[in-house]
Amino acid sequence: MSSNPHPRSFIDVTHYSENSRQNGKFSRPHSYLMQSPRIEIASDGPEFSRIVLGLWRIANWNMSPAQRLSLVEQALELGITTIDHADIYGDYDGERLFGEALALAPALREKMEIISKCGIRLLSANRPAHRLKHYDTGREHIIASVENTLTALHVEYLDLLLIHRPDPLMDADEVAEAFTALRRDGKVRHLGVSNFTPAQFELLASRVPLMTNQVELSVMHMDAMYDGTLDQCQRLRIAPMAWSALAGGRLFDDKDPRAERLRKALTSIAERHGVSMTTIAYAWILRHPSRPLVLTGSQRIEAMEEAVAATGLTLAREEWYSIWTASTGTSVL
Amino acid sequence: MSSNPHPRSFIDVTHYSENSRQNGKFSRPHSYLMQSPRIEIASDGPEFSRIVLGLWRIANWNMSPAQRLSLVEQALELGITTIDHADIYGDYDGERLFGEALALAPALREKMEIISKCGIRLLSANRPAHRLKHYDTGREHIIASVENTLTALHVEYLDLLLIHRPDPLMDADEVAEAFTALRRDGKVRHLGVSNFTPAQFELLASRVPLMTNQVELSVMHMDAMYDGTLDQCQRLRIAPMAWSALAGGRLFDDKDPRAERLRKALTSIAERHGVSMTTIAYAWILRHPSRPLVLTGSQRIEAMEEAVAATGLTLAREEWYSIWTASTGTSVL
Amino acid sequence: MSSNPHPRSFIDVTHYSENSRQNGKFSRPHSYLMQSPRIEIASDGPEFSRIVLGLWRIANWNMSPAQRLSLVEQALELGITTIDHADIYGDYDGERLFGEALALAPALREKMEIISKCGIRLLSANRPAHRLKHYDTGREHIIASVENTLTALHVEYLDLLLIHRPDPLMDADEVAEAFTALRRDGKVRHLGVSNFTPAQFELLASRVPLMTNQVELSVMHMDAMYDGTLDQCQRLRIAPMAWSALAGGRLFDDKDPRAERLRKALTSIAERHGVSMTTIAYAWILRHPSRPLVLTGSQRIEAMEEAVAATGLTLAREEWYSIWTASTGTSVL
Fold first, then answer.
1. Are strands A134-135 and A82-84 parallel, antiparallel or unpaired?
2. Which C-chain residues 221-250 have CB contacts (< 8 A) with chain B?
3. Active-site residue, selected from the candidate residues C32, C89, C135, C282
4. B174 touches chain A (CB under 8 A)
5. Contact A234 C172 (CB under 8 A)
6. Whole-prediction pTM
7. C79 burial class (0-12, 13-18, 19+ CB within 10 angstroms)?
8. Please, are residues A36 and A181 in contact by the beta-carbon 8 Å criterion?
9. Domain B36-211: which topology?
10. Which CATH architecture is the domain A48-211 placed in?
11. Mind listing the pLDDT tens digit of every residue in chain B (333 residues)?
12. Nearest to B134 among C198, C288, C332 (CB)
């Protein structure tokens, strides 16, 4: 895909998972890739790690700055060099928590790619002027939001800025202008979107190059495969990013027949490959020909390892469709 | 957007609305723009007034020709120079009623832009040959319909012809041929559509330039914002036109919780701006970045003024979203 | 549309239909076209017969090889020169049954155009390795499937290969590579798809020219007219192909009000034209401006004649819409 400046080592490790969710049932030895591979997310686009560390829950982890730094260092060791933020995560405080850790080891900045998002105005004690939750993709808000983000993160620039949600009031020319100004000032290198329909993507892409569409995608949420979103990504050779890749934990917790079917199908395949069912759930997404990047949202190193392990595993079509069949509850037509 | 050959005066007028719908509750003084601004509806397209006089109810008004002429003159004084017709309005008699008035002052023709539509065959005593309501976008019907329209309106040409409804039997080449013939003969200057999906628009636009898509759009009907219609307009820099901008009066009359919420939200914003809630309902549409033109369908001069007033008012994003929230009954995601 | 190397004779024949489904009610004399016309299905695409012999039921007909050959010869006499197969028809045995007949008169190959499809893996005693019904649009499967098909049909090449169903795992580059290799080897001349959404079509068409989209279309199934599928075909000047043109017989058998309304509407028009209601059901499809080809799936020569007769008959718009109205149960807007 692209020449890789980051040397990778592929090490077979015999590993006993201690994923407590799985009650020890799957504590069989398995091998995993030591590091996430890297991918050029678009033609002439930046190169990111296929597994991305998503920090939407960072404020819930009650970590000290040193613990946060350690988490990031462990992610980097796994080849997870791409970090996903948003201005609003942690009630507008998540980026600061990350920046506080990064300030302890500023040289790490150049070893990672940083994504952030803007475009939502949240009701928050940290934004007392907001009186209604709404979107804002105006020039002024985009630029102010990025500047806040850079300050909070203790960085000079973002590798990728995403418009967080489609805004009916989005003036595509105005977004393009805001991005052009930010790029000119060295504050943002690339632009993308999140949760955009194909028509919304096509509109903004007609004014400014877009590098990705970060969308919900998992074995429990396949809409993007059928509504044209991933078709568009593949056509334009834009790698999508998958959020909620484990369905926010519902994959493990839901009691309904669908979740039961999925756990059974994933477990069966996991046992065959000697990995956890979580790894198979990630591998199912990674198998898509649009080449999705996958976000992980856990602070546990084992959870990151389960995601990285998925990058070394290509599901057979029959395996992929047995999961599809478990999810839909029906055979293909 | 374009140089404006029509000098406009912006006059602050203290105005007491007498809108009987509002029971005097909103009879606060407000200022409004004296005239509707003008807008180039497409690149190299015609320039229209942002507020358009829609005459679909002209036959219900029981006006004399002189009264109809007076209505048009008052609209022109408000800068409402664009007039929207269709062959079928008033059971195929509306255009004649307008033409009868225009014949009293033929020089007015060059002070206005005239839109009409064709493509529907209505069951009507005025069309005894019709045995079934259906669409017809055949060459013969388009040309015959336009010729009827020109005769009825007492004009030599239309500024814009719209295909009224998407016809599954539409042969895009045939429509393009019909328009080319009409343009060559000086009978129609521009072509557009109404109520087309993005795919239908893309089909016809692949054969002939289209200047607009006239669609239903109001605080009670937001589909066009989410189904790709307005995204396509903005992408192609084509201004849409909004019909049923007040939801056919349901905005004022409906008793359901949604209409109640909307009236409350609109009223609150209206009071802040010193205008009527009707003006805010129009301003909500005009705020969209696709730059919609808005149709008004009333014979009352006060109603036209309420629409023109909206062109001088840009809703804050928070205001716009508070109306969106009232309409959907939910916060944004 | 294209020069026609096949001389056609248009012969008026007084014909008493003996379609037993119709209880003799419609046994009025009617004329039909002696031969199906031909059509270039895409710019620089192949020329096919407008009526296509679909062989998805061939294995149910319990015919001897000589009877199968006779069926094909009769189809050719009617100008039905295009034959539609799929690897999976007849539980993977249909193509062999056809090939067995063709082997009796191999010179017929050059008098016909042969379509086949691949991309579905069926659970079948004839494919014991399959453990789950699923799609497969991988290079290896496409090429192996075509090679099986050529062997079974006793032919050297296919005129058109279709991807049978949209596969979420379709890598468009890989499909394009597989087709390029097959074309280079003289095994397949053109590529198309079946049952693809517009977004899926646009994706694959971005990598390799597509000649058709074979979709469900009938008086009982109009989705393709409204979801953008036929708009896309017309825009790209690609003729679609209509499968299940008689709704799998439900048009004749269903007891619900919709089928009753349709039979009444079709019969009334059929009587006016002196043809069977089946002919009108085909003519309804053929009237669409995207120029659909229509598949017939019957082994009865009378059924083929009823389809060919439809090609000589252009429904009036009012007739077409009276059927539309019967199908939807509502007038147009």
1. unpaired
2. 222, 225-228, 230-232, 234-235
3. C89
4. no
5. yes
6. 0.91
7. buried
8. no
9. TIM Barrel (3.20.20)
10. Alpha-Beta Barrel (3.20)
11. 333 333 333 333 333 333 333 333 333 334 444 899 999 999 989 999 999 999 999 999 999 999 999 999 999 999 999 999 999 999 999 999 999 999 999 999 999 999 999 999 999 999 999 999 999 999 999 999 999 999 999 999 999 999 999 999 999 999 999 999 999 999 999 999 999 999 999 999 999 999 999 999 999 999 999 999 999 999 999 999 999 999 999 999 999 999 999 999 999 999 999 999 999 999 999 999 999 999 999 999 999 999 999 999 999 999 999 999 999 999 999
12. C332
